[in-house]
Amino acid sequence: MSGAELKELREEIKKVTREILRLTAKRVELSLKIGDIKSRLGIDISDRQVEAELFNDALNFSGELGLDRDFTSRLISLLISESTKVQVEKTSRTGRIGLREIFYMALELEKSGRRIIRLEIGEPDFTAPPSVVDEACRALREGRSRYLSSYGIIELREAIAKRLNSMYGVDFKPENILVTSGGVTAIYIAVQALSRIGDEVLVPEPAWPLYREIAEHLGRRYVPLRTSIKDKWTVKLGELSKHTTPASKLLILNYPNNPTGRALSLTELKNLVEEARESGLTIISDEVYSQYYFHGRYAPSIAQVLDEGYVLVGSFSKTWGMTGYRIGYLVGDRELIERAAKILGLIMTCIPEFIQRAALKALRDEENIVRNVDEVKKRVRYMYSKLQENSLIEVYPSDGAFYLFPKIKIDGFDSSEFALKLLREYGVAVAPGSSFGEYNQHIRLSAVKPINEIDEGVEKINQAIQQTTQL
Q1: Residue 84 pLDDT grade (very low, low, confident, very high; cuts 50, 70, 90)
Q2: pTM (2 decimals)?
Q3: What is the fold of 130-364?
């Protein structure tokens, strides 16, 4: 091939690329027109049945063209994602207050000297046991602050594996464990390692906001599976299959759930997981609240259901009150852990050894776990009983975790506006339900404060609700 021929082909590729972009712009224009019609008709922006039909048509056509099926699926997913994005941006409200904004506003008000009852954040009011603090200090004094393997120290990985084996009757080895910087990093790495740009990540909602943020930051498409309080926050049988497309790759589960407190029975978990595996989905099971389970010692785990096709995420933050230590772990097959360790090494090299030594000490402290869980259970149930006294509040009683996710039965209730008003006028911080999906009639309350603060906080919420009904 001559240089002239090469140049000619490159010019042809440039023309084809421009044509692709021109057609993409045309597609966005059509999407906006469709969005206008949906808005007028009150139709949801996302329609998984229509999307599935588009996927099938595109895959059939790409087959005729000799294109790779997986590439086509991810390309179509990206196009649909962009269409959804422009429709949402045009129709959604701007300036809505979310959980992060409430959190920072509450901090600033406290710094100014105002007393704020903090019911918005899922951070225990207890801290790490003294023995854990002492161990971190001892390790620092011994100079345990140098570079390490990205996998984590072998003693901690062995201890985590041993603990999980004891809990669930499984056979994890240290090579199945990666020590991470908290549960957030574990989930981020799992999504990155198990999927590619354009792949879909399915998540039952309401859900912790960072699942969406992580998926979209990594160029994946976030697909919500909406549940409701009237169905006890349950993903109905068959609902998962209806939402899968050829681009669907991951399902993130979080039970006991943040924000609802819902936990699945072992049978419910098995049924949901079976449907997910039949749809070809790999499961990321976020079990950071597994010890905060109110019907037994720990909640049913993905490890009791599957031998493969999943990763498990755990954390020291909630169980031992070690939020600021930033330490968690990822559990999976050896190949996945090797890929994950490479990603962690690129992000932060390793978790500091003195923090890992503190976590190792925490694993040997069962007494504090029992005390912490019992105290949180008492607080959650007390908060539930107080909320039940208000006829304008509907709330699921909670199976675990720290939270309640009450629905405020007022027409036109706006959780974002209510949370802002509650913080400014009543000095109570709560998380707007809109932060967790399309749940604008809900608020999330965290019951990790002393009973007297919970009592005062709920009373002020009741006053604010009463004032809202009078407007």
Answers
A1: confident
A2: 0.92
A3: Aspartate Aminotransferase; domain 2 (3.40.640)
